[in-house]
Amino acid sequence: MANDLYLPIEFHNGEITNEEGCPLPYLPTLMDISPTCFIPYPDAARNQKSLKQGWESADQSIRSYSHGSLYDDGGGWNGRSNSMNSFLGLKLEDHTWRFNAQRYLAVEAMMEEDAAAAMVVDVGAKEVLEEGSDDGMKLVHQLITCAKVVAFQDKSHASALLSELRSTALVFGTSFQRVASCFVQGLSDRLSLIQPLSVGGCSEKTMAGSSTPEKEEAFRLFYETCPQIQFGQFVANAAILEAFEGESSVHVLDLLGMNLGSSQGQQWRSLMHSLANRAGQRPSSLQITGVGTASECLKVKDIIDELELYAKTLGMNFQFSMVEKNIENLHHEDINLLEGEALVVNSILQLHCVVKESRGALNSVLQKIRELSPKAVVLVEQDASHNGPFFLGRFMEALHYYSAIFDSLDAMLPKYDTRRAKMEQFYFGEEIKNIMSCEGSARVERHQRLDQWCRRMSRAGFQPAPMEMITEAKQWLEKVKPCEGYTVVEEKGCLVLGWKSTPIIAASCWKCS
User: Fold this and answer.
1) Which of 256, 249, 291, 286 lies closest to 271, judged by CA?
2) Which residues, listed in sequence order, are joined to residue 486 by a DSSP beta bridge?
């Protein structure tokens, strides 16, 4: 993917930065035609030839896209001086950033479109090649073309493409048709938020994070059908048990999620059973503290009584406490940490919601966690790159990732199974729409690659605690046996669950440096 070769770039208060908030070298404006805007990684030298070709194609793309616009006064690109004279009469500050962004997007889109066919084969969407190759590839390219047009904010052209896509992107079609239906909705939502150029592109969409009965049922089906969260909980419990070895009083700080409430009961029942039946000394007490908003905590309250009854049957001294706060507002004094208690922090699919355009918010949360001096921090997150600054880059990364997930659902459930439709439309579809249509604080599905999480954790003062349980993880997967195609691999001391060649979710364990 093109995004793997170039540093992500973003504009902050007139300064050009990468996604970590670090200033980058000067980037040229319209009058600097030399193609030096991209910053290759050191190991990307082999791609310079294709990059040069990309710039030539990108310049041609911008010329063809801009008939009669401020880039061409009718005399073609060779009439550059005349175009410049016309351009200087406009508000330079309103358009310079837009031109640079278009140049980035044009090159990025060209390189990504060339990789579209390879992406479809890679995720296993064989029906694109088998069930009418022309129709399948046409849908892929139509979807990518539509995303590029939406990125260029051409509302009339994009609306026409979306109308055509809706007739072929079917909710009960092939796996790629189904994933395309979710992206069509996301592109449509983004298009509806486009503002005039003078306003500054896309407006922020109100965060669509509120829970509904449909979303809750979709998550329940996802938890019961797919191995992702169960894998994360299994690996997390193994890391927690190792951290609690030899401890008499143990405490788990659980960063609750909007959807994880009901499923957390399964994780904690399993942990309690393992603690009660472990060889040697068992803990005399277990305290679990859940942190979340009022609505998130309300869901967990339904299972507290059940856990307390289960603890009594095990003869375990158990306490469950709630902290009704957003993770970002958590303070040391909110946690009832007793003297001598061994603390472990458990975060499953939560910290990516704290990631913002700058790294300040996440760093603040990680520093607060570090101040608690936990014996371990267990981190389970989607292993995907959905937080890039450019829309087209996020689009292609998300298309690759969710195509793999929809392909796995294709292998697990029959074609017309309503359970699959509910998961795809009300769980994964909601994630896709958030990635595609939301910006600013409204975009909460900011998934990152495992190596990005490793860098963030290291910078926050944590060091990796290798998970030496690849054999147990593979045995667990064989026992669960959702279907053929899921894999578990060890990567730099972390465990990654994937579908065929695509990483899906990664689990890691960290200790204070």
Assistant:
1) 286
2) 499
Which DSSP string corresponds to 348-368? ES-GGGT--SSSHHHHHHHHH
Q: Are 29 and 428 in contact (CB under 8 A)?
A: no
Check whether 299 has a pLDDT greater than 70: yes
- Report the pLDDT value the prediction gives residue 196, as an integer from 0 to 100: 53
Contact 125, 154 (CB under 8 A): no
275-282, long-range: CB < 8 A, 24+ apart: 275/241, 275/244, 275/250, 275/316, 276/314, 276/315, 276/316, 278/241, 280/246, 281/246, 281/248
Strands (E), 349-418: 376-382
Which residues 6+ apart lie within 8 Å of 356 measured at CB? Answer: 362, 441, 446
Residue 63 CA from chain centroid, whole number:
34
Give every CB contact of residue 293 below 8 A, 6+ residues apart in sequence.
258, 324, 325, 326
pLDDT confidence band for 209 (50 / 70 / 90): low
> Do 378 and 240 touch, CB atoms closer than 8 A?
yes
What is the bridge-based pairing of β-strands 317-324 and 285-292? Answer: parallel
CB-CB contact of 362 with 456 (8 Å): yes
Confidence band, pLDDT 50/70/90 cuts, at residue 30: very low
Per-residue confidence (pLDDT) for residue 133, from 0 to 100 = 61
Amino acid at 107: V
Q: To 10 degrees, the CA torsion angle through 293, 296, 297, 298?
A: 120
Q: Tell me the average pLDDT across 312-326.
A: 92
Q: What is the mean pLDDT of residues 113-132?
A: 47
Q: Are 436 and 187 contacting, i.e. CB atoms less than 8 angstroms apart?
A: yes
In angstroms and rounded to an integer, the radius of gyration of the C-alpha atoms of the chain is 25
Whether residue 77 has pLDDT greater than 70:
no
Q: Which residues contact 49 (CB under 8 A, 6 or more apart)?
A: none
- CA dist 411 and 499 (Å) reads 11
**In this model, does residue 305 exceed pLDDT 60?**
yes
Q: Mean pLDDT, to the nearest integer, of 203-221?
A: 73
Helix-helix angle 175-192:429-437, to 10 degrees = 40
User: What pLDDT sits at residue 21?
Assistant: 46
Count of positions (residues) in the chain? 513
Q: What are the strands, taking DSSP E only, across 162-208?
A: none
Q: What's the rounded mean pLDDT across residues 381-399?
A: 94
**Backbone angles phi and psi of 271, in degrees to 5:** -65, -45
- pLDDT tens per residue across span 437-459: 999 889 999 999 999 999 999 99
What is the residue whose two structure tokens read 């607060």? Answer: 368
CB atoms within 10 A of CB 501: 10
Q: What pLDDT was estimated at residue 80?
A: 41
Strands 494-499 and 486-491: antiparallel
Report the half-sphere exposure of 391 (CA within 13 A, side-chain side).
Answer: 28
